ABC transporter ATP-binding protein (Galbibacter pacificus), 612 residues
Amino acid sequence: MPRKLASIKDQKKEKTSVKDSFAAFKYIPRFSSEIWKTHKTMYLINTLARLINAFAPIALLWVGKLIIDEIITQINASGKDFSLLWKYVALELSLALISDLISRLITLTDSLLGDLYANKSSVSIIKKTNEIGIDQLEDPDFYDKLERARTQTTSRVNLMSNILSQVQSVISMVSLIAGLIYFEPVLILILILSIIPSFINEIKFSSQSYSLARSWTSERRELDYLRFVGANDKTAKEIKLFGLTNYIADRFKALSDEYYQLNKKLAIKRSTYGAVFNLLGVLSYYAAYILIIYRVLTGVITIGELTFLSGSFNRLRNNLQGFFSRFTNIAQSALYLKDYFDFIDLDVEKDHSKEVPIPSEITEGFFIDNVAFSYPGSNERVLSGVSFTLKSGEKMAFVGQNGAGKTTLIKLILRFYEPTSGTIYLDGTDIRKFNKDKYQKMFGVIFQDFFRYEFTVQENIAVGKIDEIENMGRIENAAELSLASEVVKELDKGYKQQLGKRFNKGQELSGGQWQKIALARAYMKDAAILILDEPTSALDAKAEFEVFERFMGLTKGKTSIIISHRFSTVRMADRILVLKDGKILEIGTHETLMKNKNLYAELFSLQAAGYQ
Ligand SMILES: Nc1ncnc2c1ncn2[C@@H]1O[C@H](COP(=O)(O)OP(=O)(O)OP(=O)(O)O)[C@@H](O)[C@H]1O
């Protein structure tokens, strides 16, 4: 039986009430103003067209009434004159044609505005995601918010056209109601009585279905993830070899079935109640119809007026039904809108440290003073009592077993996280006092889990300094230093070669080739401090040696940190810091550490023996 994620299943399910649906309406003005800003002319055309078309139903019905009354007059007249009748017919035809054209204009502007708005909101989401700190990005609650903001783009586009249609429908209805009131006010009462129960029903169920969808955000993310793991080129090798297909499929099925069952229950209840209330609507129409027929038979109204009234009543009923169902749709989408604005308004950690300017040149270097660190939401000390200096121009290597805390220490130096206690100084200034963006710009960093952008080689290298994307000289130079130039030589389209298999004509690279490309990013920037976190793990021995030779030459006089498990590389560093369980075990030159005969000497000898 597939296992479920305990953390997800244990989460409390939030309930969303009808009150929440109504409260979410307050986001609509902001939403409308965003659409207005997306394309003002198109928005104006759309609104104007809807305004005109709002009067089409009553106008058509009225001309219809005139035609029928005129036919009856002419049937009974002794001297026939059809000229007025044909004028009415021509008028109705023109109205129908114009209204059809305007409807098309509405649909067109709806879809164009919708596309523009969807693009704009996707860009806002991308930008917002990047304003958010790394610590928040690793938080599952954040991912839930992101998921809801991201996946509801279509719903927001529908919401836009629903809101505009709603305004149009209200105007139409007012005009139809005016007609009904003029001839037969009691019809309005029948109409309202028949439609209210189904409206309440819709509101109730739509907030329940939103509530269900919302409370299942984490599970839907899990489903998405399982779908990804089960069906993509990156995992295919392992899935096949380990025979994981059934495991993944069963796990997906178990979770999706659970959601299906809950949803099914709700959908059945919703449509059963809906059917009953709709019956009420049909019965009310016939009650109204009988009343109108009775009025004709008693000579109170004409046959033309009968068609006008029954047509108006029917239209109004449909319009009201549309109005109410759009209303519930809007209420539901407004809740998603709330998610979107909640995400866009997420508090971004404010940087109050703009006062101290970044040093133009590093003179003293870093001083890490008694730093301890636990990841947010965890009590486990990943680092404790870490104190050392990294002098300006020094090349230091961090060494230690898996999980010792090497990458974490780098994340603290880069200010992705703040130490739980202790301070990091650069040239005597607490690094928290620098503007974070400017501070981070001083570093050229390649992480072990660097990203393989399925872009061209040129773009993949230029991401190290994207402003220089057109500077081929700089890109080629960076590629030369990282040995990526050797990879480029083999590619049909050189620097213009699309990488990865996702897109047409893409070329996949080997792990080491990707690493050479990624390494070039570090050289794109003339960074004051270079950090390479296991940058050569996938390189062959010869390539690694060459890469480091170049690195040492290039970074002469530059402050740099290298993390590596290969001691042939590590020994080239000026000093080596050995971490064990988050603490500094030893620090010094290769020679000193070898003399210490501690962990470094042991690991070095172990590796050296392996090569003998
Ligand atoms: N984002 C995170 N949230 C919580 N714990 C984390 C996170 N990243 C790492 N850890 C934990 O912190 C500890 C140190 O991890 P770190 O990545 O710094 O080790 P490392 O020395 O770089 O290891 P390796 O040689 O395997 O790359 C590990 O126990 C790991 O489980």
User: Anything to note?
Assistant: Residues 1-12 have pLDDT under 50 and may be disordered. The domain at 365-610 is CATH 3.40.50.300 (Rossmann fold). The longest strand covers residues 365-373.
